[in-house]
Design goal:
Elements (H helix, E strand, L loop, with lengths): L8 H6 L2 H22 L1
Length: 39
């Protein structure tokens, strides 16, 4: 499972904008990889 991609909203809010953008990009890439792997 993708436990390392889970984060509490409070932690996300405390992140800088750059960190948030990086995290979102990571999630999107992970979602893409997951979709490819399932099909």
């Amino acid at each position: 499972m993708a436990t390392e991609y889970k984060i509490r909203p409070t932690e996300f809010i405390k992140m800088s904008k750059a960190e948030q953008a990086m995290y979102v990009a990571m999630l999107e890439k992970y979602a893409e990889d997951t979709k490819r792997g399932e099909s």
